[in-house]
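Researcher: Go.
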Amino acid sequence: MTTDLSAELADHLRRLKLPSFQDAWQELALTAEKQAWPYGRFLHALTELELDERRQRRVDRHLRQSRLPSDKTLETLDLNRLPLKVRQALPRLCRGGFVERGDNLLLFGLPGRGKTHVACAIAHELVRNGRRVLFSSTSLLVQRLLVAKRELELERLLKQLDRYDAVLLDDLGYVQQDRTEMEVLFTFLSERYERRSVILTSNLVFSEWERIFKDPMTTAAAIDRLVHHSVILELTGSSYRTDAAKERVSDEGSQPHETSTEHPADVVRDPDNPGAF
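Model: Structure:
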């Protein structure tokens, strides 16, 4: 191919927005010539490469937009610390069937048991499999909803959130605000009911959620919407953070002091059955 024709082809590929074609066609053409590929196979290889690159760019973009902690992935999760039922459920949840059905994923347990890490690891796999996920602390999302309501933009924000296949709300147990703020959270949950998934972590069992939603009727309705189509995981065992602190002290040659990472107002009251309603 002449220099002029090569430059013109590069311009065409740029205008057609086919960067992978532009980067790979010459090297792939040499392979095709050496192996006597028919034209159809050469074209198929180019289009397959372009689609793979686009898929990876889309995943990278969605990972950035998800705001997921980059270090809380399946690769960094210590599976040996998880209850057997959680380990068994992970592969199925990572495939994302529950998201396709619009089901919710609820993770309960005392502080430091790995709820956030498990939820984020699943969410990372969902994004890698082509789904859109948004990670947020529950308190931050409540504030965003409340500001939108005050500015008469709540409907617009809910539509923006609806673009995500799953919204991961972290640390529901630490949200103890006024009734107005809980009303916008209830509105968000109701809007996604049976259509879009919510992934939620909480250190409070359902029987304590009235402390969050302030009203028995609202509490019951919120629980009903979350549980109706849901998968519930119970994270038990010892605290990751406390164990890590003890290991650090032991490594330094000192005896570990007794510490507690649990907030007294946010502890599951029945540690032998953290998922009890």
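Model: The longest strand covers residues 104-109.
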